[in-house]
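Fold this sequence, please.
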Amino acid sequence: MIQVTQYVKPLDGWSRPHLMLCDDGNFYVIKLLSNPQGVKVLVNEFICSQLAKQLNLPIPEGKILFISKRVINSHPTLKSVLQEGPHFGSRFIPSGIHQPTCLDLARCTNIEQAADMIVFDYWLDNNDRHVWRPAEQNLIVTGGSEPKIWMIDQANVFNGPAWSIESLIKKMNIFNAYWGTLYQRFVPFIDGPNPFRNSVSKFQSLTKGELFNVVFNIPAEWNVSEQELTILVNYMEHRRKVMYYMIQSVHVHFPIWHVHYLKHGGIG
């Protein structure tokens, strides 16, 4: 397990993340076991980072990171926040644009993955990325000659980090058609007769066994029960199978797709 070697500074965010340097030489944005939103923030982030590896999603690489007593003792003022054990960290992306303009998005070499982002959020019921915030978004754009769009902050998948067995069962068949200014900005880049066909096919290629492998690698120290993990898999598997149905509700926001949809009766 990668070890934290140096505390750097606190960062903004509801989960009060921190920037730290680790023994692999990389900086990570770390969400702590003691974060105010609860340990399931770490669970949600870990699951999304592992799915990203399999689906080639633009999510920063995520790792389980260990904070030792040595690091804690070297920062006495943080002893009430830091605790020894495994936490979750996302690779820090320096110089990211948190309020990208339409021009910034147009320059991104992976802008076509906006379709993947929308399908991903609908699949896992991520209830806040569609919102365009005055301060920042749940995405960043890197600069340079080949700018890229990155999805950050996956804490609100499963309709938020307060999920339970009961809430997952209840939400399994509820497909909220979140739509907002951020998604609307993606429309010109991905609209077409069937803009989500490839994304849906990619997600539907996952197997239930692969989903089990993801969730059952969650550290025991995060205290997620086997029953909760099983329900998570069943939730993802069920919603994965009905993605075509889930995504059809947003066709009205896509001029080309809308015409095609009315003419041909769907996206399948």
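The two ends are 43 Å apart (CA to CA). Residues 2-91 form one domain.
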